[in-house]
């Protein structure tokens, strides 16, 4: 259950753990370049809604660029963290399916690493369209959870882990569907870009171990398989042999 007070976030909880992982990824130069690309595509209008803003980095960066940005996240713990980090910025608790904006109130809509967590992405885009002003821009960014490329001595087990972990995500292939989702929602000038995230070293070891643990908990692999696979990845990290890559899709659309 999501806790609903600022005091609750003083102890490291699930949100703090996710924030640690996001910080590690989002401070990488390639991630910063992708965010900069999204800001460019959002055009020059304000305000911009960053939906599923998490700890608020994009909101702060847009504000630094002289744009008025508003971060929205359904998790009050995340909103509390974002407010602590960027006290001058505007953060609101809200759901992508029922945003805290009037019709046509925002000039830009941005959602990064969010749509895979939403069970009904088409509904979220209906809501994006409602809150966007005519001519407003939407930019979606996200990884495809069913297309993780992981080097391993056991490719069959790795394939099982990747696909079974993807099945635990509400919309694991939302990112490959961005273009069609935007077109189906009536957006114009839609285009999609693919960027590749490549990770080596120890940074992503907790994420890889988390994949195997989740798949074991869901009963798809045995404890022995889980432990052997994590041990192999830990060895790879130790000897600089770890390799994880995945496509990150960015898609743009304009509200008619
Ligand atoms: C993986 S984090 C990404 C955070 C941030 N956008 C980033 O790129 O670092 C996903 C965020 O989306 C939020 N989220 C998930 N489903 C949501 C929904 N339906 N409405 C609003 N926020 C949502 C989560 O609470 C979480 O903070």
UniProtKB/TrEMBL annotation:
Q: Which residues form the Methyltransferase type domain?
A: 50-140
Pfam families cross-referenced by the UniProt entry:
Methyltransf_11
Q: Which keywords label this protein?
A: Methyltransferase, Transferase
Q: GO biological process: what's one of them? A: methylation
- Asked if the keyword Transferase belongs to this entry, the reply reads yes
Q: Which CDD domains match?
A: AdoMet_MTases (cd02440)
Which InterPro entries does the protein's record reference? Answer: Methyltransf_11, SAM-dependent_MTases_sf
**Any idea which GO molecular function terms this record carries?**
S-adenosylmethionine-dependent methyltransferase activity
User: What is the protein name stated in its UniProt record?
Assistant: Methyltransferase
Identify the species of origin.
Planotetraspora mira
